[in-house]
Specification:
The complex is a heterodimer of chains A (233) and B (428). With 233 residues, chain A is an alpha/beta fold. Chain A has a single domain, classed as 3-Layer(aba) Sandwich (Rossmann fold), CATH 3.40.50. Chain A is built from 7 helices and 10 strands. Classes of the chains: A alpha/beta (233), B alpha+beta (428).
């Protein structure tokens, strides 16, 4: 395992909010975490433990106050906002608990969106979006709008969207949190398949130990610190 | 590529909120419609005024007498004296005379078509028993008649010989013929007519009948319309016992001559030759081209000024667009956050919302242009002018709509672009 290629390297990550104000708040107190290419890792913690903040930093949606973050060897702190946008667009696929689909447009257009920002031509991105939607079993709902889809279907669309631009990492924040257990099961199966068959590195954020048990490695976070790490194999 | 995407995105979000979009657009529609209507109506008036002035003679130059600026400083009293009493104190040696005009005709033979002379005798009636028709009796020389461009229906025009021999001949309109001869123009030519004028009866022989130009602007009802009755110039002068000399005359320049330049040359020539030693008067010449120019300039200024006022409603419309864009961005905070998470750079978010504002404004602008043109067509029709849509107005409106969209869309769009993706994603 240790000789595999590192993709996410966090060293001494600290995140504070309201810096310099009386109610300054430190959420992360120095996190060290390394994720290897092709790994399926889960980060488990109760709400308020700082796991979402950690995910935002991993997803380069936010910058750490202190510490060093290297993504595929690239020093994130040295990059400009526009370069971070590019990394989110090409390297990382997000799956949110609340799906965050654009409600006015079809499933197909939603999946096309990241490719539009990547400058992929119209025909090519429609072709690829159809392919990804087929991969998650949504090929019969291409032209449905999000409010015409069930929760599980929406999450499938959002996974297809995360796959657009073929990122190496998928960040899933409580992806089954709003779904019933049977639907959640199917979503988890998709993640396993993407990990196994497509070789995606998957970071799953969850508060459910049961789901975490399915992953290669379980990292427990509590009050802004990593309190446990367990390899399942 | 991305441009088209953004237009489609903008149209999509407008469709999603039709009522709101319509209300927002309304301000722009009203603003643009009023600007277009005003500019088009102004344009129509300008076009018809210009063409009617030009039909009076585009090559005409009017020579008039103007009081010389007194050399000593003008006191308020002095000024009033000059202005109020000046005309009365005009005496015989101040007038333009036949000799001067003859000299001018010799001097400028290559540029001067002729001197248009007319003498207004007065308003009268052609009578035959109970039948009568209003006429305004005018003595006219050959160049003047030529400039009137009369369309002869029967008989002949007045000849140079008629003019020289001061014959008692008259040209009458077909309107007079309709009243007195039952419309028989052939019978009218050569007949004797009796004209009641200034308390006396005069007899003339009808030389010819011309067609009355119906297009001439008039607001009078049919029976009051007075048509011109032309006499030879000298015949008329004798009737009015006019003093020799003119205070104002019209000259016609030959075709191809720049009448504005020629009018300046004439003015100098007359002043150098005849009025240098006249202490009170000098000649001032104005070409029809000059007058048309100053008239159209005035109309342009007026319509631009009114348009500017209408432009204020555009400003208000633009503020409405900005307001609705801010609302829309707040509502779509999550969408913006999602787009950013998916890798949209700030610039692309900004472009999206600016395009949305531009599409709103442009849509309003286009509807406004159509409404404005319809309004202008209705107004010009009611006023009796030919509709003449202002092309500059249309181009200006399109450009201005885009400008309003960019200007009032920029701030909301920048706010969207600068949104922190995490806050935006977390927004409920």
């Amino acid at each position: 395992m240790e000789n595999r290629e590192k993709t996410i390297e966090l060293t001494g990550i600290v995140k504070r909010f309201y810096i310099g104000k009386p109610h300054e708040l430190e959420i992360l107190h120095g996190i060290d975490l390394t994720v290897y290419r092709g790994e399926f890792v889960s980060i488990v913690g109760a709400s308020g433990s700082g796991k979402s903040t950690l995910m935002n930093i991993i997803g380069v949606l936010d910058r750490p106050t202190k510490g060093d973050y290297r993504l595929d060897g690239l020093d994130i702190s040295a990059l400009k906002d526009q370069e971070l946008s590019r990394i989110r667009n090409r390297k990382i696929g997000f799956v949110f608990q609340t799906y965050n689909l654009i409600s006015r447009t079809t499933a197909l257009k939603n999946v096309e969106l990241p490719m539009m920002y990547a400058g992929v031509g119209r025909k090519e991105r429609t072709r690829r979006a159809m392919q990804y939607l087929e991969m998650v079993g949504m090929e019969e709902r291409l032209y449905h709008k999000p409010d015409e889809l069930s929760g599980g279907q929406k999450q499938r669309v959002s996974i297809a969207r995360a796959m657009a631009n073929d990122p190496s990492i998928i960040l899933a924040d409580e992806p089954t949190g709003a779904l019933d257990s049977r639907t959640g099961r199917k979503i988890m199966d998709i993640f396993h398949r993407l990990n196994r068959e497509e070789g995606k590195t998957i970071v799953l954020i969850t508060h459910s130990n049961e789901l975490a048990e399915e992953t290669d490695r379980i990292i427990t976070i509590r009050d802004g610190e990593i309190t446990g790490e367990r390899r399942r194999i | 590529m991305l441009f088209l995407e953004n237009v489609l995105l903008a149209l999509g979000s407008l469709r999603a909120n039709k009522m709101r979009a319509l209300l927002t657009i309304l301000g722009i529609i009203i603003g643009i419609a009023s600007v277009i209507a005003i500019m088009s109506v102004g344009n129509s008036i300008r076009t018809s005024v210009t063409s009617s002035m030009e039909s009076m003679g585009a090559n005409h130059i009017t020579l008039g007498l103007r009081q010389k600026e007194p050399e000593e400083e003008v006191t308020e009293e002095g000024y009033r004296f000059e202005g109020g009493m000046g005309q009365v104190s005009m005496s015989e040696e101040d007038y333009l005379t036949e000799e001067m005009l003859e000299e001018a005709e010799k001097e400028f033979a290559d540029q001067l078509e002729g001197v248009l002379l007319s003498e207004n005798v007065g308003e009268g009636k052609v009578k035959d028993g109970k039948l009568s028709s209003n006429v305004s009796v005018t003595g006219a020389n050959t160049p003047y008649l030529k400039s009137q461009d009369l369309k002869l229906l029967s008989g002949r025009l007045l000849t140079d010989r008629d003019q020289r021999e001061k014959k008692n001949l008259a040209l009458i309109s077909d309107r007079v013929v309709r009243k007195l001869f039952g419309g028989d123009t052939g019978k009218a030519a050569g007949s004797q007519i009796e004209v009641y004028l200034n308390g006396r009866y005069y007899n003339y022989t009808v030389a010819g009948v011309y067609e009355y130009d119906k297009s001439a602007f008039t607001a009078l009802p049919e029976e009051y319309i007075s048509t011109e009755l032309y006499l030879p110039f000298e015949t008329a002068r004798e009737q009015t016992h006019a003093a020799p000399g003119y205070s104002q005359i019209t000259l016609a320049a030959r075709s191809g001559v720049d009448s504005r330049e020629f009018s300046r040359k004439l003015e100098n020539w007359f002043n150098q030759k005849y009025f240098r030693h006249n202490e009170r008067y000098e000649v001032s010449a104005a070409s029809m081209a000059d007058m048309v120019k100053s008239m159209t300039g005035m109309l342009t200024t007026i319509s631009a000024a009114i348009s500017a006022i209408a432009g204020i409603s555009l400003l208000v419309g633009g503020i409405g667009v900005m307001n609705i864009m801010l609302v829309s961005i707040t509502e779509r905070t999550r969408e913006i956050g999602t787009r950013k998470a998916l890798g949209a750079p700030g610039g692309s978010i900004r472009l999206q919302f600016i395009m949305e504002a531009v599409v709103i404004c442009l849509l309003g602008g286009l509807i406004g242009i159509v409404l404005g043109l319809l309004l202008a067509a209705a107004v010009t029709k009611a006023m009796g002018y030919a509709a003449s849509p202002s092309v500059e107005g249309i181009l200006f409106s399109v450009a201005f709509s885009v400008f309003i969209g960019v200007f009032f869309g920029y701030y909301p769009a920048s706010r969207a672009a600068k949104m922190n993706p995490i806050d935006a994603l977390r927004y409920e």
